[in-house]
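User: What would this chain look like folded?
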Amino acid sequence: MDYIRRANERGQADFGWLNSRHSFSFGNYYDPRHMGLSVLRVINDDVVSPGAGFDTHGHRDMEIISYILEGSIEHQDSMGHKHRIDAGEVQRMSAGSGVMHSEYNASNDASLRFLQIWITPNQHGIEPGYEQKTIAQQGKLTELVTPDGRNGTLMMHQDAVISRIQLEPGEQIMLDNQSRSGYLHIISGTVEASSPEQTNNTEQTTNTEQAINLAAADAVGLIDSQALQLSVADQQAEPLIALWFDLPAVS
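Assistant: Here's the prediction, encoded as structure tokens.
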């Protein structure tokens, strides 16, 4: 693993109605060590108070993905969309040449929690676009957002894939980034993670580096490592839920 981001080390902004934890530099939080990875620029873990939200504001040239963890969002934008996005749903908005939108907690008595994800696009000035879907888990790794919208996924304008991982107790998975970059963000549960060791540029051993334990909101990134192995302990009572970002190689 080339990059480790612990949950309690993230940036934080508390506005009363909004408590946000920033995986990467955002707003008033700036750390040159944490500026994003490849085209992944923002992961904000936002908790919004009942009835509160983000007033109408604008974006340009950004792929904005929202993954709802708890509660519901009331979304309205300048493209004419007015939708409710519930827990478990995924929303993608391509800001493109410019879009205005607002986001509010749809409940007056329960908090809203969601991950706000920004990915830089491979095209600028495109026509803004919008999608939202519920995508059921299919096996251990389920694609949610892809460059071409394949197999019922949402489509974004970038050579990147966002997938949801779900591992039950005793299960494991090997994530091979195939000379690309990768980023794993844990949503819930705990997991043991390790990467294969490399002895030189051409030879790779079957041994792995010392494993580390990851819990909710922890994250790891791959830049030069070739793969990431995840294992959930047999005694783990809660399944692992995580997002896996398959990203272009860092030049």
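The longest strand covers residues 40-48. If you want, I can go into more detail on any region.
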